[in-house]
């Protein structure tokens, strides 16, 4: 890992003889130092949460938010270089808006992840640019309600639409994580940033693939996981930031929003309590006592 | 007219003349299993019938079709563009395009180019999620979701007929009877509508064409023709 090595790490898009792209790997290092971010795919929605490290006491609490809304139903959070994250969000918004102007409907989360993946990947190809120093988690809810075409006149007929098939695929939650290489996968639970290992271990305990976790319970878990992941950098102050998206008949009515402060405070209170409990009994680390 | 090959392509619609008018009457309805589109087959240049067996029911995706009325050239061009976009959408995403997607694309084209186009479109499609849906885009480029839609000059003669005989959730047989009956009236009263009656039935089973000929009293040959 010394920089006076082979020289294969000095330029983007150049492979080393053993098939690695060092600039991309260095970008991953930038991510590994960023504040922990997680995403949880629940039964009836998505939760995004991040550990925002307080770099100065002069920063106003609650300001400088890290979780961004990209389209009404989609949020993005990223770990790594903050300005790169902002640029990424801006691109995501452009993609969402361009989709809307072509198809007169919100972009599906999967399609957005695909477009952003391609965009990030392009930044690994050219010597004039550097890769993104972020890993982003994109989460949203594709509406399961009957959609109107943007710009449609009136609400349309109350009748018609014969021949619907029961159980035909209809929207639902989508959660994707995009890495500096442009690689992206869909996840039940995603974690990135400094505390990702601890966070992943906690996420795996939740049995997310069964699709039974309720949104509100997920909020509590998300808060706790961020607190658990923060254990290793206890010396630094942090702020917990959380957002969620539910279906149209859920608490956010299909929109991506900040978790309301009352619920956020409750989740934080429980998370802190859970952490204290852990300290008393085993002195930190693993342990699955956690009351609901 | 430079084209020497006459007016008709093999499919009977690709006619290249100045101001060819198509779609003197067409319609689309929702019924219990999906949608039915129907149209006459007359294309005119002034008083001259340029094509008596035109196909004005144009496929833009598997089970998304449209009825074209207005300028033959304009409506074909618009349908071709939408067909391209829907085709691309279909291969790029696991879920195919919906009727809404198609309607949105049609509207964008019709509204943005309203000064240059003479195109009245009815879009009808079936998908499992939304069932059968009908959208109408008249001359200005507005978009209307309707239980059924009628268009073209001949449609003025059948507003009363449709209003009287329209029923929600008709069976396929009733739906075909309704569309055929309405189109027969339009053809009877409207000088610039005529020829055969073409129908397309869009359901979970896919698209089925029907053809009804005037010399058989619009009774056949019917399905699959």
UniProtKB/TrEMBL annotation, chain A:
It comes from the Eukaryota. The keyword Cytoplasm applies. The keyword Nucleus applies. Keywords: Cytoplasm, Hydrolase, Nucleus, Proteasome. Its main location: cytoplasm. Pfam families: Proteasome, Proteasome_A_N. It is found in: Cytoplasm; Nucleus. Residues 8-30 form the Proteasome alpha-type subunits domain. Residues 247-292 are annotated as: Disordered. The 26S proteasome consists of a 20S proteasome core and two 19S regulatory subunits. This is Proteasome subunit alpha type. It comes from Ramalina farinacea.
Automatic annotation (TrEMBL), chain B:
Its main location: cytoplasm. Keywords: Cytoplasm, Hydrolase, Nucleus, Protease, Proteasome, Threonine protease, Zymogen. InterPro entries: Ntn_hydrolases_N, Pept_T1A_subB, Proteasome_bsu_CS, Proteasome_sua/b, Proteasome_suB-type. GO terms for biological process: proteolysis involved in protein catabolic process. Coiled coil: none annotated. PANTHER family: ATP-DEPENDENT PROTEASE SUBUNIT HSLV, METALLOPROTEASE TLDD. This is Proteasome subunit beta. It comes from Ramalina farinacea.
């Amino acid at each position: 890992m010394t920089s006076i090595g082979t020289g294969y790490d000095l330029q983007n898009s150049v492979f080393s003889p053993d098939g690695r792209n060092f600039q991309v790997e260095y970008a991953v290092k930038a991510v590994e130092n960023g504040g922990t971010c997680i995403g949880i795919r629940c039964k009836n929605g998505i939760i995004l949460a991040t550990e925002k490290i307080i770099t100065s006491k002069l920063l106003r609490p609650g300001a400088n938010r890290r979780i961004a809304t990209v389209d009404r139903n989609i949020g993005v959070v990223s770990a790594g270089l903050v300005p790169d994250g902002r640029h990424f969000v801006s691109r995501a918004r452009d993609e969402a808006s361009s989709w809307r102007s072509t198809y007169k409907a919100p972009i599906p989360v999967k399609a957005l992840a695909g477009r952003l993946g391609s965009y990030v990947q392009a930044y690994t190809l050219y010597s004039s640019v550097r890769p993104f120093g972020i890993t982003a988690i994109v989460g949203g809810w594709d509406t399961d309600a009957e959609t109107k075409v943007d710009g449609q006149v009136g609400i349309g007929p109350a009748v018609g639409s014969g021949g619907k098939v029961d159980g035909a695929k209809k929207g639902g939650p989508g959660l994707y994580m995009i890495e500096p290489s442009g690689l992206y996968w869909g996840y039940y639970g995603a974690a990135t940033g400094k505390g990702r290992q601890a966070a992943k271990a906690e996420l795996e305990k939740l049995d997310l693939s069964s699709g039974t976790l309720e949104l509100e319970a997920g909020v509590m878990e998300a808060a706790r996981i961020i607190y658990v992941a923060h254990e290793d950098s206890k010396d630094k102050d942090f702020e917990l930031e959380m957002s969620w998206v539910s279906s149209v008949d859920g608490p956010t009515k299909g929109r991506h929003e900040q978790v309301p402060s009352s619920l956020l405070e409750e989740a934080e209170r429980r998370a802190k309590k859970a952490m204290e409990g852990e300290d008393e009994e085993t002195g930190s680390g693993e342990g699955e006592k956690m009351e609901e | 007219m430079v084209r020497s090959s006459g007016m008709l392509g093999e499919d009977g619609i690709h006619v290249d003349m100045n101001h060819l008018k198509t779609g003197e009457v067409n319609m689309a309805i929702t019924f219990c299993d999906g949608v039915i589109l129907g149209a006459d087959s007359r294309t005119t240049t002034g008083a001259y019938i340029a094509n008596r067996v035109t196909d004005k029911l144009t496929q833009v995706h598997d089970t998304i079709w449209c009825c074209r009325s207005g300028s033959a050239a304009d409506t074909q061009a618009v349908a071709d563009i939408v067909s391209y976009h829907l085709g691309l959408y279909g291969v790029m995403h696991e879920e195919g395009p919906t009727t809404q997607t198609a309607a949105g694309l049609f509207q964008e084209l019709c509204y943005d180019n309203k000064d240059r186009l003479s195109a009245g479109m009815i879009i009808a499609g079936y998908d499992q999620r939304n069932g059968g849906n009908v959208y109408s885009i008249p001359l200005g480029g507005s978009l209307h979701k309707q239980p059924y839609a009628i268009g073209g000059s001949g449609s003025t003669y059948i507003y009363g007929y449709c209003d009287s005989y329209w029923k929600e959730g008709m069976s396929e047989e009733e739906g075909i009877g309704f569309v055929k009956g309405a189109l027969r009236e339009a053809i009877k009263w409207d000088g610039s509508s005529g020829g055969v009656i073409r129908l397309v039935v869009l359901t979970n089973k896919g698209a089925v064409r029907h053809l009804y000929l005037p010399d058989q009293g619009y009774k056949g040959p019917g399905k699959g023709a």
